[in-house]
């Protein structure tokens, strides 16, 4: 795995973490790049990075917002000020799906979670391609185990982004291979599989 | 290996030795048919089997129930179906063959060397004794596999009887093995039994290691005929084997297909034995007193003369005495019966019923020639006899003549065999007796009385075997059916007939459906001891091409000048 480039997009810093996932805090101004289903990485040094998929983006209120929402005719400057200078950060929940160490990618849970205030980056298309083509879709395991998450939607969003990255590099077959693997993993769970396929059908991927 | 990979059709997912193996198909189901010959790779061994069933399956029944192609885009539906819906093959494992280590490995050379040095037995197909493991690769047999099991077409004695249904690889029948035990050709009417028999007989005649006697009830085999369904000319055996095949017609001056046969067969009265009459019990509706009366006749007139003497008696002839009382004439049946103490009514009844036999024009006191002996001599000399019944197509004619002639032949071959074994004289030539409508001679009631059941049971040791041809194998006595080594069967619809053909064979449950689903024409199932494993084949066509391949020269059309010159030695 290549080390993070200097122009990597920083999307925030770590708020809290566990082995299976972590939460990133960021400013509103940093919210333009990351999206639901995006692959991010926590850089814990050049040799060790943890990868995760954003499965929730959460904006909490604070006291000022509570007052402002009931006011009439809020000034645009006030709104902009509240978003830029708010005290409570935006939170992005990330599901850990693998890590890299010694230049090799593992679709396993990371040995150690990232530490607070570690910088979190959005993966570039190249990094996305590298992570998703390593091994044989072992990271799907972590998604399918996360029963409390909107798995179908998360998978569909991830597949859409990953397929775009692969297609840009000339590999049109990745989505088919990924879908086939999902079907294999879920073929004994009719309800989940049909839910996933139904989501994929909804115009996200071109089959 | 690449070649094998190309034809891989699936992998083993389950099964047992007692039941069948189950194979997950990885190619479209329509590329494999019931009866397909498949090979399973397992380490140093190859397993050969037969597809007996194809089953649709689903990882969850709901995937099968729901038409997901209506809910999902075609590409997505195809991916889903590829993983959740499948076809399983049921494979009847039949043979296994050690193929040794990988060809390119050093172990292979050592293995080969051990065989060459005689330290290890040369691999040969064995009845299956174990099963391949899970996920063993399965592929359709190629021509090499078929040749490995059924023999190479170019080897002498191997006769191509047909071709595999999917890929058209030639399937051979080993004629040496075929004639070692009695065999049967079965199939419902119109399934091509006669054509198949012609093929087999042509193969046997050309191979020239066996003599053939054909009881040709319907005058089909000797001279050219017209096919009943296509109205096309069907070449007779004598047309192609003019110097080897003799056609014998029943009765003086017989005409077979408007042609004169090579011999006429007349039967001497002295040749007719009481057993010949007893086997006509059902045909003539004879009573249970018949054996007693016949025994009295042979006691009175000897076995050679009883028939002529009984025929000469007058039935019901009475004379009137001086006192006006009537009494049986001295040459009457009643007078003889009274003399020997036989029931007069029984004797007169038998005489009356034997009227049909007495009136047979081919039974004469003194035949112009001893044709029966001529037939035996010709068969011993390596010629082949087609006995055509001409206009005598009744069951009575067929039963009487077949049994009588076969009895004489049996005696002759027993005598030759005993002389060969005891005195070291010339070994008897193998003889195949071909019997059409075999159930008439080999049914449960008659089997014990006819020579044919004896041949089927015991005559293998005396170089005589049967080739029975029948459309109702269920009517043939079980004991005879069980002795049939090779069975070649076309389509059969009747459950009892199917059961009879499969009697005594392993895997008959699996083969049952296959037999019922053969194409009504030109498809046959090869079964039994004479073939290494059961296999349905598309039978060879009996046409000019067949003769060209068999005889190695052009037939049917004009011969070229070169061909003629070559034949006459230039």
Short overview:
The complex is a heterodimer of chains A (207) and B (570). With 207 residues, chain A is of the alpha+beta class. Chain A has helices at 63-68, 76-85, 125-133, 140-145, 151-168, 174-186, 190-201, and strands at residues 9-17, 21-26, 39-43, 48-59, 90-101, 104-106, 119-122.
Can you offer a commentary on this structure?
The complex is a heterodimer of chains A (207) and B (570). Chain A is α+β, with helices and mostly antiparallel strands and 207 residues long. Chain A has helices spanning 63-68, 76-85, 125-133, 140-145, 151-168, 174-186, 190-201; strands spanning 9-17, 21-26, 39-43, 48-59, 90-101, 104-106, 119-122. Chain A has one domain (9-201). Chain A contains seven helices and seven strands, in the order ββββααβββααααα. Chain A has a six-stranded antiparallel beta barrel with strand order 1-2-5-4-3-7. In chain A, strand 5 and strand 6 form a beta hairpin. The radius of gyration of chain A is 18 Å and the shape is globular. In chain A, 35% of the residues are buried. With 570 residues, chain B is of the alpha/beta class. In chain B, the strands form five sheets. In chain B, strands 9-8-25-24-23-10-22-21-11-20-14-15 form a twelve-stranded mixed β-sheet. In chain B, strands 1-2-5-4-3-7 form a six-stranded antiparallel beta barrel. In chain B, strands 12-13 form a two-stranded antiparallel sheet. In chain B, strand 3 and strand 4 form a beta hairpin. The radius of gyration of chain B is 30 Å and the shape is elongated. The two termini of chain B are 49 Å apart.
